[in-house]
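Late entry, evening session. Most of the bench is empty. Finally got around to the prediction I had been postponing all week. Sequence below, unchanged from the version circulated by S.P.
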Amino acid sequence: MNDNCLHSIPGFSDPFSSITHLLGAGVYLLLSVRMLCRRQGQVWAFAIFAFSCVFMLSMSGVYHLLGSGTGRAVLQRLDHAAIFVLIAGTMTPIHAVLFDGFMRWGWLLLVWSVVVTTITLKTIFFTAVPEWLGLTFFLGLGWLGAITAGLLWYRLGITYAKPILYGGVAYSIGAMLEFLGQPVLIPGGIGPHELFHITVLVGITCHWRFVASLATDQHLTVPNNALSV
C-alpha cells in the first residue's frame, strides 16, 4: 500500500512492515510443510493456500525492504497483486473440501477469474487507480468470503464460521485504518500502515487455523465431506 514517512534503518526502507512480514513468511513457510505433510487428499488446494500466504508476506516484506528505484516499483505491483492472490487462495481449500456443486468449482472459478482480471487491470492502470478504489476492490473481493462464512454458519453453526469471520474483520479494520491514515502510535515508526500489516498477520492467522484444522480432518462433520449448494 502507500508509503509512510518513517525512520529507516540500514537495509530496510520500512523496517517494521518489512521485518514483520518477512518473519511471517518464514513462519508460515515452515507451517506449510507441516500442514501439507499431514493432509491426505486434495493436497493441491492446501498447497495453493499455503503458497498464497507465503507469497503475499514475502512480496510485502521485500517491497518494504527496498528503497526507491525500479525494483521497488515492480515489487509494489507484486505486493498489491499478492493481496488478491491471498484472498482467492484462502477460499480454495475451504470450497474444494467443504462444498459441492456450484459452490465448489463454480465459485472457485468465479473468484479466481475476478482475481486475475482485477490484478491485470490494476497492474496496467496502476498509477491511475486511486487508493480508495484499490481498497474497495480489496474489501469487496475479500468480503465474498462472508458468503462462505454465512453458508457454514447456516449449515454447521456460528462456532464453525468464527475463524473466517474474525479473519475478515481483521483485514477490514486494517484496510480502513490504512485509508483513514490514523492512528499514529509512534511518529516515524508505527502508524496506520504498520497497523495494517499487523491486522494482515492476524487475518492470516485466523484463516490458517481454520484451514490447518481442515487439513487434519478436524472439521469434517458433514455428510460426504461436502456441503451441496
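Two things to note before I forget:
Helices lie at 15-38, 43-65, 70-98, 105-124, 131-142, 145-156, 158-180, 192-215.
Residues 221-225 have pLDDT under 50 and may be disordered.
Will write this up properly tomorrow.
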